[in-house]
Amino acid sequence: MRVVLDTNVWLDWLVFHDRGVVPLKAAHAAGQLEIIRSSAGEQELERVLAYDALKRLVDAASRPVFMENMYKTSSLHDGSTRAGTLPTCRDPDDQAFLELARDCGADLLVSKDRDLLELRRAKFGLSGSAAGFRIVTPPECVALLSPQPPKAA
Do residues 101 and 128 touch, judged by C-beta distance below 8 A? Predict the structure, then answer.
């Protein structure tokens, strides 16, 4: 499954070691997830890692280590674009994740961002798949990776 992670999910993965992304890490290690990133996403993560609020966890010397872990875990999108209309997100930084998910042919955009999750309901409908990909939270991504029990006849 091809996925795009937003900055909040990358922070949980790389910095906070949030329990909610542990199943995603396991799925990636097992080859179930292909994570795609863009240069815009890299730049946003670098900017966020320098925030004062994270100084206690991320000092200047450790920022390159976090970025290197992102590089090792994901593949850089080649920059090609695909046709397809996307809704406009309030935050231009979030718009870049929508565009990346469309352009790289992602199955899922994994997000914890309120604007993206609201956009999914308002513009993408309940399925969230109008643009060829779904916007999901980390737990929803995990549920989609888990084998579904057969339905009773």
Answer: no
